[in-house]
Amino acid sequence: MHSRRNDWLRTFVLVVFCLIWVAPIVYIVRVALTPPLSGGVEVETALGLSLDNFRAVLARPELLKALGNSLVIGIASTIIILLIAIPAAFVCATHEFRGRETIEAWILSTRMLPAFVVVLPYFMLFRTVHLLDTLIGLIVMHVIVSLALAFFMLRSFFSELPREILEASTMEGAGQFRTLFSVALPQMRAGVVATGIMVFIFSWNELAFAFTLAGGAVKTGPVAILSFMAFQSVQIAPLMAAASILVAPIAILLIVAQKSLIRGLSFGAVKA
Amino acid sequence: MSMLAGRATGRHSPSHLDVQKRRITLDSMAPGLMLAPIIVVLAALTLYPFLANVWYSVHARDLTQPFDTGFTGIRNYEAVFEGGSFLNSLLVTIEFVVISLGIELVLGFLVALALWKPIIGSRIYSTILILPFGLTPVALALAWRLLFNPAGGGINLMLAHFGLPTLDWTASPQLALPSLIIVDVWQWTPFVTLILLAGLVALPNEPFEAAAVEGAGYWTSVLHVALPMLRPLVLVVILFRGIDLFRTFDTFWVITGGGPGNATETLNMLLYRLGFQNLNFGQASALALTMLVIIIVTTRPLIRRLVARRDR
Asked: What is the ipTM of this complex?
């Protein structure tokens, strides 16, 4: 069952699939690096490497401003989500009480809603309270994007803490809040950071909310790229340069926190 | 979910910190205080949209006719179901969800098998695997849009290079949906692989040894020993992937926009069109509620099976 021929076959399968999986990503970077004036659709045939497309894209203020918006929205919504999800995850992971499963199912249900089911009412609400096309509006909406992800990820980290230290803390008379903040949290700094990174990535990548509830004065990175496409429909090289810039920070975060990605996306069901 | 975590590692058990002391103090209210914020947010993010959708769906809310906002009963629902749009979208959605999910499960499992036992370079493979579904979908969808371009896009250039006939891909009503299925399979098969791989790695050795003693070959032990033990994880994948496929927006919006015609107009894209292109929020809300009913009805048996505990 474990032969050398088998290993070759497995390596072959893996190499083929990984080539397919990186090909479009390599394509983005390769097109972005083509020298200007070869920017027709048949850009693949052009040779040579140049950073001119990156310079051209970065010289325009729109993309940088959009990336700045994405950064602000991502950081703010991550902080809000962590503040809300950490205590809730702590309680659900360490206490057995009536209604716990109902609350968890309720949290899970936010992961099942199609974005526009939520967007429609909030569009009407934001229109009346003048939050359409604002940073605050998007920060609020991005809380829904990963609240469930953060809760279940943190919950799985909390349930891995050795119970003895939590019980010892309670025995010594520390209150719940002290147990959480001075005993539990310091033990799982890595888990909180990993959760924060995941939440930030999902905010950065989000399109549907950013596109319908904002997109005029306040554009996020993905929205800016789409409007960039509308203007530059022929020049794909600068477009791919912009896409590379949008993706680069996420690629770094993903590689740093790759193990948490699976834990987050499977809601703590898988602790890869 | 709690039991999912338990099954995956087999060492989750709820503790009973709160039985230690019961005093009427701030401390005894701590769990409630800690849960209060998330409950408020959940209400705002689920109850409000639900109630508002119900309200809009029985009222005229056509933003192009701002003064006509009266009660309309079920007229919005009738308008959604009349004509072929809803039925077309329902069929497109079913086709997209079922075919993509099937391919992703089979392909994802095969690649997970290839990664199962230690192999040189497994870290590099795993890193590459996270990129398709971790990187910003809009950027990747843009790349696919260019690759699929019938006139000189990367895929047709490659086909021509090998002397194969070129295809119209996203420009043809027959191939547009298969093109999007290709993109989704490309993007999400690695996710299925990594989840199933985590499950495979955690499996105990004894059943396989027992099977080997009985003379079972590789595929027999995979199909009759590994697969049954992975069932809970396969259900997780079906549930999460199924829901995400149902809600997919980014790739559709960037690559086809629902076209050509309405060949790739899923329910989600139809919802977008009714709400944000036709600006008819009444009809859009009626469709949104219909979609909620579809989600609840189809996921209920799965969720129930996931939540049902073995020890009860």
From this structure: 0.87
